[in-house]
User: What shape does this take?
Amino acid sequence: MKVVVLGFDGASPDLVDEWIDHLPALGRFKDRGVLGRTVPPVPAQTPVAWATFMTGKNPGKHGVFSFIARRSGTYERDVAEPKKLKSKTIWKIVREAGKKAVTINVPMTDAEEGVTSVPGFLSSLEGVPQPKSLGEKVARKFGIDRVRGDLGTETLDRVDTDPDLFFEEVNEITEEMAEISLCLLQEESWDLFMPVFMGLDRIQHFFWKCVDPNHPRHEESEYGELVRKFYVKIDEIAGEFLKSAGEDALTMVVSDHGFCPVHTEVVVNDYLAEEGFLEARDGEIDLEGSMAVSYGYGDVWLNVKGREPRGVVSAGEEYEKTRDGIMECLGKIEVGGKRPIKAAKRREELWWGPYLNEAPDLTAIFNVGYQAARRPLITNGPRRYVNLNPRWSGGHDGTHDPGDVPGILGIVGPGIPKGKRVEARLWDLAPTILDLMGIPIPADIDGKPLALKDPG
Ligand SMILES: [Zn+2]
Assistant: This one.
């Protein structure tokens, strides 16, 4: 069976439910197939989540743990990128089975031999069609040599002063991406075809407060309506794909995570400093002299003797005692009488696999409404501990409980019973797709194919 997967980064099942009467294509998934939710991995961050989707594995087996990680054996901050992904992707499995995959704008993808692709977010080749012959075709048909899959930083930087420009651009990019994808759907040969649309993620980070009446800074404004209209737009795109994919193909819609409100950011490093785990001078963290530091997303890295170049914590008992101490300190943080952190987890409680030793030693899981501050790593001058006016009003990645920020999942097509309830983890989708395509599922995959066929 041929499969089309439409990725809508950040699409929220709550908003889809609320607006379903205005979303006829997603309504078709609901009426004639499956429309439900999927739970992202910890952390529910775009690179980690799509890496989990495309490998069917937990981060301990694919090696991508965060937007920002500490490079092993150094104190360097590394931004996630496709070359950090250490596991076989579904595209490769499909190719090895003698079938063809086409990917467009999927985050964390690169040029991959035998795969027709336009690499997406976080790739050094973002927007550059692969192989060259695809680039030539896109240039000939659309007059561009780079596909704009995402907003430029310039527009993102101006969103506060020029929100109309932001919406204009995100709509324009989305329409262009849809047009190119639908053309390639018709003209390329494929067994698995997958474009990802990034717009909803970018929109909801800034404008979540406009669509969530429970947000403490909820605003009734025209922008709430523009968010709703964007859901209508992605629904129209889904409708076009349903029409074009052909009767014999199965179509899925997937998001890597959803959203929750964010009103307060917590500067984890300020608390680590207060409790004596972190040393800082003049607003600069002493990475070599500290026992522990957060690199920005609620992750905490210990400075271990024999592991880091200038480790100060001994492996074994002292390591465990230090982790326990930090967990206790994070657990008792209070902001305005409320606890921002739901739980702090040791890495072995969250993940398993050969790359576990590259994971942060601890991860703070934040309650809805809160997130870890990304930067600065530490407040300059007097400690501030929290930022009560974060730039973003919606979040999912810093670091939230995956159950609080589920993504959407829809499946419709031949053999899919209607109205069946499915509960999926994001790593279940790769084995589900392989199963539907009749390709054997590699034994080291963590996910399980969804039982779609039997009624129930
Ligand atoms: Zn995302």
User: Anything to note?
Assistant: The domain at 2-259+403-437 is CATH 3.40.720.10 (Alkaline Phosphatase, subunit A). The mean pLDDT is 94.
